[in-house]
Structure formats: structure tokens, C-alpha cells
Design a protein that fits this description.
single chain, 415 residues, disordered C terminus, mainly alpha
Length: 415
């Protein structure tokens, strides 16, 4: 296998390891917790997911676009900025934790304490991507997976959410240490400069907007349900989406490796034919996975999610419909990213806002079940709008040269 092929395999395996970490953390937390305990843990984990996505957008995507001799200094600066920013945000979360009562307060306090560890460890992945050393990211993320699963398996049944958050965060230390050691040869002698991240017009600001309207809005809406409605709804929604985690790996892989492959298809017709077939395949796979989960015996379901299984299982039809639509939507947005890169933002803005509205209206009318169907309706409309936008593109001589694909966000829906 060529060096480029090995790099691609390492990137896919690294993405799979990171996604497996997110899935297993939620599965183990659900098994160890009571229903209310997992609801509190889920609220914290959704908060972390939003912060993770913001860091990926603001720092990670700008890092992977860097080239040339400056890359060592850029990576050192990215690590330093992530550490400083996460420390500030961690202090703010700790203050919030002190103000919140009960288990939620302790869980947010724990998140504030470990946030710099988990964000810096995750951020190293983008440095290794820019350095064309994905095998180093794979080594660190595989160690992360091993440590966090081992640490959570040692926790007693009924462990408090604050304890689980603390164990989850501290278990990142070995992977963080390994990642920094593996990065050191590339950044030796380089100086960190945080000023570019603080300047107006930094490239990451655009990526933050795209994340906010694409992924962050729905994540924040789910978090809002826990703040203004009931954390139990957050636990049920998070439990249901956790079971579809393997599909996120496929969606993220399509986003990460699709553009360079599609650039060789030779024109609009070839690109659309390929992405339409891929989208249909992902949609059918989502429906099939939903059917498998729906037919899963309660005994096996409770082994996966513990007490949360009952509430999560009721949402499986809606979540299955959402993920089937996301398969189609992911490929439509991928098509636009290759053929008309500027066309994606308007679709993301309009239909991500609609998804949030549907989620909140659905919850107001029918509880967690309505919220899940609201997310599904939003995904269906986004996919339909994206494919309609594709159909209206004038046929160019060939696909636009794609920008270097940034690593996708493990465990987060992409469309």
C-alpha cells in the first residue's frame, strides 16, 4: 500500500477510534447511571460537544489549511491557544457549576476542571492532520479509547454524574501526554503566537458561523430543553442518537474524503450520480439500522443503555427517520461543496434554524417524542432543499477544486 493509502487508512481508523470513544462513553455512562443521573451527564456532554465543535471550527479547520515551513509554529500556537481558551471557559463552567443545585452543579463543576485536558487532547488530531502524520493521531486516540473505557468500567453502578465526568476527563491524561510527545519533533524550536486567533477576520470565525448554524444550533436547542424543560428529555434524545453513532463515522468519512474523490469524476453529472447513489445507500443503511435497534429485545437494550433504554427506545423510529434523511442531506451538501462551495451556507442557515424550531415546537406539543420527530422533519427538509439546490446548478466544465477537507466532528451529526 502506498504512503498516501496508509495515511487515508490511518485517518479513517483515527476517526473511528474517536467516534467509538464518544459512543462508548455515553453507553457506559447510561449503564452506570440512573435515568436522572444520565440526564445530568447528557447535559454536560452536550455542552462539551458544542465546545468541541467550536474549537474544531475556530482552531482545527484553520490549522489543517496551513502549508509550508510555518506549520510547526502554527501547531504550537494552536495547542497554546486551545489550552488558554479552554482554561478560561473551564473556569466559567466551574462558576456555573457552583451556582447550579444538586447533581447538575457537580457535573458542570467537573467539566470545568477537566475541559483543558480533553480539548487539547482532541485538538492534537488537527495538528497531526496538517503535518500529514495521521498515524500519530491514531496512536493517541487509540490510547484515549483504551483509557476511558477502562476507567469507566471500574466505576460502581449508580455513580454520580459528577464523578463520571471527572473520570472521563482525567482519563485523557495518558493520551494527551503521548500526543504532546509525538508532536514535539515537529514543533521543536517554533514559537507560539496567539495574536492571529484574536484578530478580526481570522479564518476560524467563518467556520464557527457554519458550525453554529449547522451543528451547534440543534445541540444548543437540545441543551435548552434540559435548562428550560426537563433534563430527562435530553437523556432520552442523547441515548437514542448514541445508538446511531456508527452512522456518524460514515457521514464524517464522506465529508472528509469525498471532495478529493469527487474532483476526479469529470463534471456535474458524474459527481451528482456518485453522491446520489451514496446518499441513497446511507439512507437505506440508516433505515436498516433503525429497524435492527427497534427489534432489539429489551434485555439487550438495557445492557446497552441501562435505565435510559426505555425512554430512548421510544424515540428510535423518529431518530431512524432523522438519520436516513441525514444520509441524503450529507451527500447533497457534499455535492454542493464540490460544485458550488458558496451555496452550502444559505441552506445550512435556513434549515438548521427550522430544525431548531421544529424541535422546540415538537417538544411543546408532544414531549421528547415530538422533539425527536421535529429533528427528523428538519433533516428531511434540509436534504430536500439541498438536492433542489443541486438540481438548479448550471453544468460547469468540471467540479470546483475542493479545499483541503478538515477532519469532521466525531460523534456529531453532519446534516
Amino acid at each position: 500500500m502506498s504512503g498516501r493509502g496508509l495515511a487515508a487508512v490511518s485517518s479513517v481508523l483515527d476517526q473511528a477510534a474517536a467516534s467509538a470513544t464518544n459512543i462508548l462513553v455515553l453507553v457506559l455512562a447510561a449503564r452506570l447511571s440512573t435515568t436522572s443521573g444520565f440526564a445530568a451527564f447528557s447535559m454536560v456532554y452536550v455542552t462539551f460537544s458544542v465546545l468541541l465543535g467550536l474549537n474544531m471550527a475556530y482552531v482545527g479547520q484553520s490549522v489543517v489549511l496551513e502549508r509550508g515551513e510555518r506549520i510547526g509554529a502554527v501547531c504550537r500556537s494552536a495547542v497554546a491557544f486551545t489550552g488558554a481558551a479552554s482554561l478560561i471557559v473551564g473556569v466559567a463552567l466551574a462558576v456555573v457549576g457552583l451556582l447550579l443545585p444538586g447533581a447538575n452543579g457537580w457535573a458542570f463543576l467537573a467539566l470545568g476542571a477537566v475541559l483543558p485536558l480533553v480539548l487539547v487532547q482532541d485538538g492534537l488530531r488537527y495538528c497531526f492532520s496538517a503535518l500529514h502524520a495521521p498515524e500519530r493521531a491514531l496512536a493517541a486516540d487509540a490510547l484515549r479509547l483504551l483509557c476511558v473505557v477502562s476507567a469507566l468500567l471500574l466505576q460502581p453502578s449508580g455513580a454520580a454524574p459528577g464523578r463520571l465526568v471527572l473520570v472521563w476527563g482525567v482519563s485523557a491524561l495518558p493520551a494527551l501526554a503521548l500526543g504532546l510527545v509525538l508532536l514535539r519533533p515537529y514543533v521543536r524550536g517554533a514559537r507560539a503566537d496567539l495574536r492571529p486567533y484574536l484578530r478580526r477576520g481570522h479564518l476560524g470565525q467563518r467556520f464557527v458561523v457554519e458550525f453554529a448554524v449547522g451543528n451547534g444550533s440543534s445541540q444548543l436547542a437540545v441543551l435548552g430543553l434540559g435548562v428550560f424543560a426537563t433534563p430527562l428529555a435530553v437523556g432520552a434524545l442523547r441515548g437514542a442518537t448514541t445508538l446511531f453513532g456508527p452512522l456518524n463515522v460514515l457521514f464524517n468519512s464522506a465529508n472528509a474524503f469525498g471532495p478529493p474523490m469527487l474532483a476526479r469524476r469529470g463534471g456535474k453529472r458524474g459527481v451528482v450520480r456518485t453522491t446520489a447513489a451514496l446518499g441513497l445507500g446511507l439512507a437505506l443503511l440508516g433505515a436498516a439500522w433503525a429497524a435492527v435497534l427497534y427489534l432489539l429485545p429489551d434485555r439487550l437494550g438495557r445492557q446497552l443503555l441501562g435505565d435510559t433504554w426505555g425512554s430512548a427506545a421510544a424515540l428510535l423510529p423518529a431518530t431512524g427517520a432523522q438519520y436516513s434523511a441525514m444520509g441524503l442531506g450529507t451527500c447533497a451538501l457534499l455535492t454542493l461543496r464540490v460544485l458550488a462551495p458558496k451555496a452550502t451556507l444559505s441552506v445550512q442557515v435556513v434549515f438548521s434554524v427550522l430544525s431548531v424550531v421544529f424541535l422546540l415546537v415538537g417538544y411543546a406539543g408532544w414531549g421528547a417524542q415530538g422533539a425527536a420527530w421535529g429533528l427528523a422533519a428538519g433533516s428531511v427538509l434540509k436534504a430536500a432543499a439541498a438536492w433542489l439546490r443541486v438540481s438548479r446548478l448550471s453544468a460547469p466544465a468540471g467540479p470546483a477544486a475542493p479545499s483541503t477537507p478538515a477532519p469532521a466532528i466525531p460523534g456529531l451529526p453532519t446534516a
